[in-house]
User: Fold this.
Amino acid sequence: MAPSTTLNRPQGGVAPMTHDTFGPTSVAAGETSAGFTELVVRLRAPLVVGYLAASTVVFAGFGSADRPALLWWLVGLLALTCAGSEAGPRRVAMDWLPLLIIAAGYDTVRAQAPDLLTRAVVTPQLRFDEIVFGGTAPTVSLQRWLDVTTGEIHWWDYVVWVGYLSHFVVSLSIAAYLYVMDRVRFKRFATLILTVSVAGFVTYFIVPAAPPWLASRQGALPPTTRIVYAVWAHLGLPGVAKVFNGSAQLANPVAALPSLHAAWPLMVALFLWPTARRGRYLLVLYVAFMAFVLVYGAEHYVSDVALGWLYTGVVLWGWNRYWARRETVSRS
Assistant:
């Protein structure tokens, strides 16, 4: 793709602008970022050697590092060794670095889960759902209507299970497709997903929140079943099911507000909307289906889903404004 085509074509829902509102501050920020990358490229060898030497000293002094620390260490090493590369494996590593950052961020929050559990909020999101939906949280109503209380696994529970797991496949598949077809759009998509995920991780630290299934165990909500756990157990895979059984050592049971499971599908839909004219109804259906999966499956309240959508809207609006202004400056 020629550079001029990339600059003149809106990406990810960015509307073209007819006047310059970018200003010198953003231009300077872009120049600063480029200058920093050039500095890393010029001093790559001593920086990498110094990084490894410092890491050796730290590990020797403090002992073995936990998994989140190792992931962040790997992020730093890849950034130093691959920054500025425009070809080969190093460029691929830098392009997919946001995925590693998301994994490191989630693992960092997960490692703090035992402490976060002690201050997890239960009431605000539960009361919101009860007030908006006539006194009963939708999770409770849906599970009663669909006869979850019998303890039997229904065929639609498997559909919900597949829908929940699709969170880990759909966005990555779209990212891989974009990476092959349009690297500029891939970078923007990765930036959006990374930003909304980091915003979610920060919120989990500030306001850890109990999901419906955990609130039921604590007696704050009528009994509910965590469908994903029930299906894994029914499939005879207790090792996998254990991850969804509420153990703070294996996952973060209070990473509920906002719902990134809801935020990512909406980000996918909004990002692809300008170019997916024939498949827009599928995007809308997937967003709605994931919301149903999360609420019925006792993974999230409606308020968690709504906040995830709000985070998505704010992140997309902010980055679109930045990209539109940058393109205006590039054309001027």
In short: Confidence is low (pLDDT under 50) at residues 1-30.
